[in-house]
Amino acid sequence: MDDRSELLQLLDSSRAGGARAAEVLRQRFERRLFSGERSRGEAVSSEVWTLRVWLEGGRAGVAAAATREGLVRAALTEAAAAMPNPYAGPADRIASSSGSLGVDDRRHKFIESEDREEMLRGVVRVLEAGGARMCGLEYSELRERRSWLSSREVEREAAATTYGLWAEAEIAGVRRDHRIASRHFSDVASLPFGLELRRRLERLALTTALPDEPLPAVLDPRAMALLVRAIAPMFAASAVAAGNLLTGRLTRRLAAASLHLTDDAGLAGGLRSQAFDDRGVPPMAVALLKEGVPAGLYHDPESARAAGLRPTGHFIDGSLQPSNLIVRPGARTRNVILGELPAYLLVDQLPALDPSTGRVAGPTAVTLVRGGKALGTATADLDMPLETLLLGIEEVAADQERVEEVDAPTTVFAPLPWSR
Predict the structure, then answer these.
(1) Which of 69, 206, 296, 358 is the most buried (most CB within 10 A)?
(2) Full domain range(s) for residue 270
């Protein structure tokens, strides 16, 4: 039996059970996980079926399982107990893009054990050459096939690959991990993964005291990507409705005018690109911040109908989630900007953002750079509102780097309120 026939059976059974509308998603996964230098990971296959049904009045129910057995009964039972919702129902028919997203690596089935092992040995070789002790090394491969069908006679299919590499190492008591991921094996295999982690460890292992003078704070693309990744979930319409930093202030300035942030789930080759989300919606680009002002939100079909908008195609694994995030680069290069700074603090990564309070708080490592030379690293505490942090952005560099799903440039901030 082909995919369409199996999906259609679930829709027909749902309608026979009283559903006014239904949609079903089938996801099939093939995973490989390798630990250490030897690539002996075995392929593990699995699948997930997700059925959504709607009864009279927009009462919705959803059920997910590894098999179709019992899905219709479970979804209808949940819907019978649900509250009515005038905006509930399958997504409207939306035309999909005719172009390829480039997320299904054609080389996938031709990757050999030797290819994987050479990549992993290269990571270990570079780290150990710098005196680092390996603490962990993992490589993963995933291929996902998705089939979706709704009672509105909309049908979609897509496939995608994901490759990930993770390592943890230690130099002089300083331990850090590093991770990269891409839709294409060649990206993961060719990036200077081990060298980036080694240089970071070498910088952090050299210690110094936190200076008393207020100095600009600099986030390199990796650190800036982590900050952007922490901010983006706040832009889900469901999160704003539940109450967060953006609630009631969607037209008020949140960041400096130099910060422009876009989410594009249809970005060619993007790590989080999808031909359609779990509700069958083709993605659209969303401008989250325009010149520092909130400009758009992620919407599922229900919140979009309530707002009179098009759903954005970001509903994944049961919730609205960011996809590929792009910080618009500035006009001047990193070298020019940093060359004009007599001294600054290079932030390894900002402390965690608490979405309930909107504060960035906790300890982190900062490296003192003076005259272009790293003099050492100190541990410092930071506790400040996210809004104050973002309003303090002084310049965004032109040099943009892709850090997994985030395209981010080096960014300079006004002096931050560090404490020892």
Answers:
(1) 296
(2) 206-420
The answer to the question of residue 29 being in a domain is no
Type of residue found at 125: R
Return the H-helix or E-strand segment holding 346.
Answer: strand 343-347
pLDDT reading at 2 higher than 80: no
Contact assessment for residue 266 and residue 285, using Cβ atoms and an 8 Å cutoff: yes
Decide if 249 is inside a domain: yes
Q: Is 329 domain-assigned?
A: yes
What is the three-class DSSP state of 313? coil
Q: Is 269 left (phi over 0), alpha (psi -120 to 50) or beta?
A: left
Alpha-carbon distance of 142 to 162, in angstroms, equals 5
Structure tokens belonging to residue 196: 């980036």
What is the number of structural domains in the chain?
1
CA-CA-CA-CA torsion sign (345, 351, 353, 354): negative
What the block records as the tokens of 378 is: 């100190």
Residue 63: what residue type? A
Tokens representing 75? 């979804």
pLDDT at 202: 96
Kindly report the average pLDDT of the chain as a whole number: 95
In a domain, 32, yes or no: no
